[in-house]
Recover the amino acids of this structure.
């Protein structure tokens, strides 16, 4: 077709270099192809056109004529116009102020039957200390234009950046970064139905491929959490070709780090198991795919020798690949490939473009080859060479998707949750009293399930509510060693008991049979105590040393066993954490399992229907995890890892999934409500205004969720000063029911559901909230109204 400075002129295969446009008015469809000629004939990045599928063609115009700067383009057809981004791409990347990213419209002029460019708009501006490359373009279901690229960092790593235009490409607004890689990155951004799907990987490293998904209805700065797409990485992050499948999913063919080609399908939620496409490994092996209806045409360059490659194609139908068909067997080096992503069924051939040269280091030319086909419904069978043989054996051990990676979630090693800490003991001597004051102002919008304040207490810190509705608390101006109790729904309190040796109460849980378990401290050490008479008398049952509980969710009951998961703050590094178990109602305890690679054990969740125990661990991306056990806590499987796994609250759904509220504090992992499956699949249900700290079932059905206002991190704007409560009848659709303003900056503000009274009213514990007592502490009783 045209001369080029090298056999890899069509870098990258992840890019959409060509489009096909129906111009109407009796004209044949026009095909446009962007080629970087790399200085051949003095040419740079040019746009070529054809009306016969590039059997004949002509140069339409220059895109970026400076041949010393190897920009590559990504094209998207929008009606008869073409939206385009272009940016540098080459085998190496160094900081340069020239490595910017540009967006440009090419508008169709019907009177002249041609395309003319509008002025290019700079989307990302590099300077002498950084560089942008591998720019991708997607247009979402609302017509907004999204540009994604990778920014080179001083340490040699890469950050996946993204910007959006809501004014048709006239301007772009940078959005929160999507991810980070330790080395140079690459990936693919695709518009699929109402979703944008972004997946990416890293150069030269055996790390999982990661992904994020957003829905067009979400706020612009909102993306689903980062998660592992699948366990194997993608060679250079960009040796891939992908196309939406027309059914809300994606066909993906990629080269993994072992230099073999594999196929996976994304079904709209997760990637399935992989199927081998080409098993002869080579550094130059690349795919290019075209979809026609339900058939996927996979072109690739099969290695023979270092200077002899073949262009082959296989066709995927109904989950089965055809035998390979060789389309070009001439002796030459054949480099990066490109195709059109989707073609109509009426086409009679499927073309593929590729670079051709004597060897990988020599100048060459761009070639075209095509696979003849019989259109469906046109009297033929639709077979295109090659008889399906059941080839493409699923690769064992790949899984769907791999949630076990403890890899960096893209937000450094920041703590994913504000440490619960040891509360201040408070001051004064009062042991009770009812606050007849006005409840805090509700700044939220009430939903289908509303929460009506019954009364507000400003003098007590709630510890637990048992099954009979007894409220256990401490006086804010009293001693932490003196337990108080209320049997009238928290309106009045009286002295109930003291811990062994004057121990201080910190965290308490009430078991189903009324037994109380408390994590306490005495002489600088933590331990568990137990009471079977409503807190009147207590007995030491386990010594914890420096370890303690984070919240009542540190305890769980499963069958006849009670569990306790340790939490610690004496080191920022990973340290052994014990899961304790008691088979006699908490009277005696023994370690059931020890976790070695974590810092904070944050919560336990019991699935009594399936005898499954879930556990969450928080802090850095390497330490955070969601774990699952099916044998009573003896053996554990990591279901979700990375910074996104930070969570301190959740509940098990009727189907066995875990409804989990993220406590992440650092972008781009904005906190969300997740539905986590045992398989590792993760669905993002709702973006949260702040980290989640309580999630409970509502009396009569539904759920209530509490979010905090944290000054640590960057997920909350300075103008948002509220902790909130949300309600839902189905766990999917949520409505803000109440909000409470923070009292003091620099301190975590929380409104947490701490228990349910016998009449169904909720007890909501307050910390650092206006309208409450010392330190913004106290509690409020809320009535659930439907």
């Amino acid at each position: 077709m045209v001369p080029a400075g090298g056999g890899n002129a069509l870098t990258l295969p992840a890019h959409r270099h060509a489009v096909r446009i129906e111009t109407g008015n009796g004209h044949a469809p026009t095909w446009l192809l962007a080629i970087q000629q790399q200085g051949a004939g003095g040419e740079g990045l040019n746009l070529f056109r054809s009306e016969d599928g590039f059997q004949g063609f002509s140069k339409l115009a220059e895109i970026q004529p400076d041949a010393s700067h190897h920009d590559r383009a990504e094209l998207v057809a929008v009606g008869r116009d073409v939206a385009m981004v272009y940016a540098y791409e080459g085998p190496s990347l160094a900081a340069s102020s020239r490595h910017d990213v540009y967006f440009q419209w090419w508008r169709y002029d019907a009177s002249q039957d041609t395309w003319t460019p509008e002025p290019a708009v700079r989307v990302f501006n590099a300077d002498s200390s950084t560089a942008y490359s591998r720019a991708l373009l997607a247009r979402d279901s609302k017509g907004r234009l999204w540009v994604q690229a990778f920014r080179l960092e001083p340490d040699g790593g890469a950050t996946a950046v993204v910007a959006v235009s809501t004014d048709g490409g006239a301007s772009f607004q940078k959005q929160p970064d999507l991810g980070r890689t330790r080395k140079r990155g690459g990936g693919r951004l695709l518009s699929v139905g109402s979703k944008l799907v972004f997946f990416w990987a890293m150069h030269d490293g055996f790390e999982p491929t990661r992904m994020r998904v957003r829905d067009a209805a979400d706020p612009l700065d909102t993306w689903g959490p980062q998660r592992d797409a699948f366990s194997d990485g993608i060679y250079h992050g960009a040796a891939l070709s992908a196309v939406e499948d027309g059914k809300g999913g994606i066909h993906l063919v990629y080269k993994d780090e072992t230099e073999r080609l594999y196929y996976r399908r994304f079904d709209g939620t997760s990637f399935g198991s992989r199927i081998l496409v080409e098993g002869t490994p080579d550094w130059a092996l690349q795919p290019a795919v075209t979809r026609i209806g339900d058939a996927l045409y996979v072109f690739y360059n099969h290695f023979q020798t270092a200077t002899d490659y073949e262009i082959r194609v296989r066709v995927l139908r109904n989950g089965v690949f055809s035998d390979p068909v060789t389309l070009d067997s001439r002796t030459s080096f054949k480099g990066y490939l490109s195709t059109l992503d989707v073609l109509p069924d009426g086409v009679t051939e499927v073309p593929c473009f590729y670079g051709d040269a004597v060897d990988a280091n020599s100048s060459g030319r761009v070639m075209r080859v095509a696979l003849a086909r019989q259109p469906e419904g046109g009297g033929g069978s639709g077979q295109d060479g090659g008889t399906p043989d059941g080839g493409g054996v699923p690769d064992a051990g790949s899984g769907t998707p791999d949630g076990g990676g403890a890899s960096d979630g893209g937000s450094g090693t920041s703590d994913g949750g504000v440490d619960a800490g040891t509360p201040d003991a408070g001051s004064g001597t009062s042991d009770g009293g009812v606050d007849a004051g006005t409840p805090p102002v509700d700044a939220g919008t009430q939903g289908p399930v509303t929460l009506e304040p019954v009364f507000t207490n400003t003098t007590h810190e709630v510890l637990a509510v048992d099954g009979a509705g007894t409220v256990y608390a401490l006086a804010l101006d009293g001693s932490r060693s003196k337990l108080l109790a209320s049997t009238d729904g928290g309106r009045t309190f009286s002295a109930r008991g003291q811990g062994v040796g004057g121990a201080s109460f910190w965290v308490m849980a009430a078991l189903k049979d009324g037994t109380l378990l408390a994590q306490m401290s005495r002489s600088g050490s933590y331990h568990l105590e137990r009471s079977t008479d409503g807190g009147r008398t207590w007995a030491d049952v386990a010594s914890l040393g420096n370890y303690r509980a984070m919240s009542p969710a540190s305890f769980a009951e499963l069958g006849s066993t009670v569990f306790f998961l340790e939490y610690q703050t004496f080191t920022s590094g990973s340290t052994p954490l014990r899961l304790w178990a008691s088979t006699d109602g908490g009277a005696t305890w023994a370690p059931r399992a020890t976790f070695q690679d974590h810092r904070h054990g944050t919560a336990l969740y019991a699935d009594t229907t399936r005898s499954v125990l879930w556990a969450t661990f928080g802090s850095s991306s390497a330490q955070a995890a969601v774990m699952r056990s099916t044998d009573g806590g003896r053996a554990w499987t990591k279901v979700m890892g990375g910074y996104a796994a930070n969570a301190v609250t959740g509940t098990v759904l009727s189907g066995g999934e875990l409804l989990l509220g993220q406590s992440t504090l650092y972008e781009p992992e904005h906190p969300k409500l997740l539905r986590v499956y045992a398989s590792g699949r993760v669905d993002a249900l709702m973006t949260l205004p702040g980290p989640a700290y309580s999630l409970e079932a509502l009396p009569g059905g539904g759920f209530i969720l509490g979010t905090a206002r944290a000054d640590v991190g960057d997920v909350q704007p300075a103008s948002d000063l509220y902790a909130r409560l949300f309600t839902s009848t189905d766990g999917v659709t949520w409505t803000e029911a109440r909000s409470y303003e923070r009292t003091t900056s620099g301190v975590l503000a929380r409104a947490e559901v701490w228990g349910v009274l016998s009449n169904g009213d909720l007890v909501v514990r307050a910390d650092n909230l206006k309208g409450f007592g010392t330190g913004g502490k106290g509690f409020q009783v809320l009535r659930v109204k439907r």
Confidence is low (pLDDT under 50) at residues 377-447.
